[in-house]
Amino acid sequence: DGLMRRFNDSIRFDRRMYAADVAGSVAYAGALARAGLISGEERDRLVAGLERVRDEFDAGTFEVVTSDEDIHTAVERRLGELLGPVAGKLHTGRSRNDQVAADLRLYLLVEMDALREGLIGLQAAIVAQAEAHMDVIMPGYTHLQPAQPVLFSHWLMAYFWKFQRDRERLADVARRTRICPLGAGALAGNPFDVDREALAADLGFDAVTENSVDAVSDRDYVVEFLGWAALVQVHLSGLAEDLVIWASRAFGFVELAEAYTTGSSLMPQKKNPDALELMRGKSGRVIGHLTGLLTMLKGLPSSYNKDLQEDKEALFDVVDTLKIELPVTAGVIRTLAVNGDRMRAALDDALLATDLADYLVRRGVPFRESHHLVGRAVRRAEALGASLQELSLDVYRAIHPAFDEDVYQVFDFERSVQARTTTGGTAPSAVREQIRRAKKKMGNEEVMRK
Ligand code: ARG
Prior knowledge:
single chain; 450 residues; mainly alpha; two-stranded antiparallel ribbon; two-stranded parallel sheet; 62% helix; elongated; binds arginine
């Protein structure tokens, strides 16, 4: 039935796996020859034919015909046209079930490399901006309420470490993706004694799957990958949200380059942060694909079921989304204009209330008490319409006798920042050390490449 064909076919979207499919078949032809099932001459003809098919895909000249259900049947059909009956020997002992499982892993491993590069590019952009603005102090926020002064570089580097963990997680998923299911057959294994280990090694896999029933149904690595991607999206979305706020007129902490903004069709003055809004917005679809995949997998009977074909569009969409998003984000960061003056103007002494409490602590007042006493000073300043710095020493002394003339030295943003020297703190010395460690994580030449 025509509608059924449209419903069932996956060639529309799985043709992008053609290089993986050809590579898998080239290796499988080798395995058949090693097992004595085809001659060396037949293997060479199959390999040459497969390479021609791949060239046709590369050149965009491959013609899909209506009977091509998916990439696997399309490649085999074309191979038959090119080679005649010998093409029919390729599928000996193989099923599309172990074939598609191998193809998807091979395809994903290539894309993972590109995504790792994307993360590195973004990290490099972060490090470059952090190094370029080591003298910029801004209000740090919790609950989006002004909290304590921090270096702008310190704020930005927070994202470096999120993306660093993303890189580590990706490497971990790749480890479990690099396992070869070929030779599992439809579900029961291969009766022709193909050397699965050699087959796996030929394709760059680290090992072979241990159970053929599991091998044809295992999509855990797709779930892990989508879970990984969803978390990357959460990180990108957070970064985007920070920058949307800071690029707003009210904040004006940063300005986005025109290359990454758009105008309004109505309001001539507008410069909209569309790149960032899309980054934030695309989280929904990526997280949605993870949920969709888990829901599809839940409750499937063992081994292969056609439901599994639904893994691909989700995976491909996520790969495409991140492959464009990561370099766009790197571009946004690289071209960001940082307005240190606006950040400084947003600093007020209230941000130093904690430092004031710490001042009392250094004079022997227990922190819980000093916290309470500074609260009183804050309320007093509010009542007088003054800043903390404008309160007289008499007022401070009335609050606690440990306050002395040198209390006014507290009201110094540089000093506040410089005091936080412990590892991971915002003192310039600590941030420099942090950047040094970050670069070491990346390898220096990657930083140079940006
Ligand atoms: N297009 C299928 C998929 O993506 C290939 C495997 C088909 N196997 C089968 N027994 N019908 O999952």
